[in-house]
């Protein structure tokens, strides 16, 4: 069994401006520290044309691929059992790989 904590999805947009609107909604609109304060309309239109030419699908849409990371946050609460102290394990995670062999041998018997 493989546990994955990321998903990759592809979303098709009618154009670059719709893609940029979604990116802005995700908080990804100001990633560069050394960017210019003003982006001219002509620059945006030229970028949209180049992006469409380079990446468009057969139906005219443009794809964007997103990686979604799944994480779990946990904070101790008095109603829960205390976690074991760090370094108190009696079995190495490396030994877990042998668990599949033990289980499969038990099924054969």
UniProtKB/TrEMBL annotation:
<dbReference type="GO" id="GO:0032259">
    <property type="term" value="P:methylation"/>
</dbReference>
<protein>
    <submittedName>
        <fullName>Uncharacterized protein</fullName>
    </submittedName>
</protein>
<keyword id="KW-0808">Transferase</keyword>
<dbReference type="GO" id="GO:0032981">
    <property type="term" value="P:mitochondrial respiratory chain complex I assembly"/>
</dbReference>
<comment type="similarity">
    <text>Belongs to the methyltransferase superfamily.</text>
</comment>
<dbReference type="GO" id="GO:0008168">
    <property type="term" value="F:methyltransferase activity"/>
</dbReference>
<dbReference type="GO" id="GO:0005739">
    <property type="term" value="C:mitochondrion"/>
</dbReference>
<dbReference type="InterPro" id="IPR050602">
    <property type="entry name" value="Malonyl-ACP_OMT"/>
</dbReference>
<keyword id="KW-0489">Methyltransferase</keyword>
